[in-house]
Design a protein that fits this description.
With 291 residues, this protein is an alpha/beta fold. The chain has 8 helices and 17 strands. It has one domain: Ribonuclease Z/Hydroxyacylglutathione hydrolase-like (Metallo-beta-lactamase, Chain A, 4-Layer Sandwich), CATH 3.60.15. The structure holds zinc ion (2 copies).
Length: 291
């Protein structure tokens, strides 16, 4: 008599889950060790990678690209949200293996160029955040193999690939943290400005907590449907609305925001402090720096 039992030898049970998943047509999430990177098909401008994972992720990213039938030579642009080793750790390997250009904000590019990829981080207020900080952040490496960015990007720059990718300076998690907005895909690449595990939330640590919250409030002015996070699940629909409900005007005050120390006023004060209009005339990305 036949049974419906599934044999444990069935090959589908042993298949490793794919490291790359489509978030939206032409937009992929690549799951790396403890962090996500994202791949954007910018059509005639080639493939765009957002963040590069921990040290040793270069090969895995190229394998993921090959698994969707694309060539490593198609990877032409690498946008980096910030300097931390789980986002910039794979850059040196990708520099060797590809000819992609690397884009970063000046304040964080300075660190990655020296290999020192961390400034002092303070845990976000709250018991869960402190626990997550101990598990996720405190024990992690603090250095990367040094890499010099090709393009230094800043607030309101528009990278002229894939119909335009806007740069929003979002300091707080790090001084030079940026969020990339891909207009055509209506997608925001958040890096570690926020996270989406146990729901949409602050990261467990920031260099300047209050500045990080202000950056999220600033992001509420922009329109996007898809939100891609360094840590946690991507939001595929109505992400901008969810951000406004959490951090927009009239949203309940972020837990612990009052307890946090105000960030000291520094030369690198975010360009949005003076509350500029959300939509400025796009300016082209700055000219390449020498490697
Ligand atoms: Zn980070
Ligand atoms: Zn991270």
């Amino acid at each position: 008599m036949e049974t419906n039992k599934v044999s444990i030898l069935a090959p589908e049970l042993w298949k490793r889950p794919s490291a790359i998943q489509e978030v939206r047509p032409g937009l992929y999430q690549i799951k790396l060790t403890g962090v996500n990177a994202f791949l954007l098909d910018a059509e005639s401008d080639g493939l765009v990678l957002v963040d590069a994972g921990v040290r040793g992720s270069g090969r895995r990213i190229l394998d993921a690209i090959a698994s969707i039938g694309r060539e490593k030579s198609e990877l032409r642009h690498i946008l980096v949200t910030h300097c931390h080793p789980d986002h910039a750790g794979g850059l040196a390997e990708l520099r060797k293996l590809t000819s992609a250009r690397i884009y970063m904000h000046r304040r964080d590019a300075m660190l990655v160029a020296t290999g020192r990829a961390m400034r002092r981080l303070l845990p976000t207020p709250g018991v869960l955040n402190r626990m997550l900080y101990q598990v996720m952040i405190a024990p992690k490496p603090k250095t990367v193999d040094p890499v010099k960015a090709d393009e230094l990007v800043g607030n309101n720059d528009v990278i002229p690939v894939g119909g335009g990718i806007s740069v929003v300076h979002t300091p707080g998690h790090t001084e030079g943290h940026v969020v990339f907005l891909a207009k055509k895909k209506r997608a925001a690449f958040l890096g570690d400005a926020a996270a989406n595990f146990f729901g949409l939330r602050l990261m467990p640590a920031y260099e300047h907590h209050q500045q990080g919250v202000m950056s999220l409030q600033h992001l509420c002015r922009f329109e996007f449907d898809v939100a891609c996070f360094g840590h946690g699940h991507a939001i595929r629909l109505d992400a901008g609305k969810l951000f406004r409900a959490k951090w927009g005007k009239g949203a309940p005050k972020a837990k612990g925001a009052q307890k946090a120390k105000r960030a000291p006023k520094a030369k690198h004060t975010p360009a949005h402090r003076g509350a500029p209009p959300a939509r400025r005339t796009p300016k082209p990305v700055r000219r390449p720096t020498s490697r």
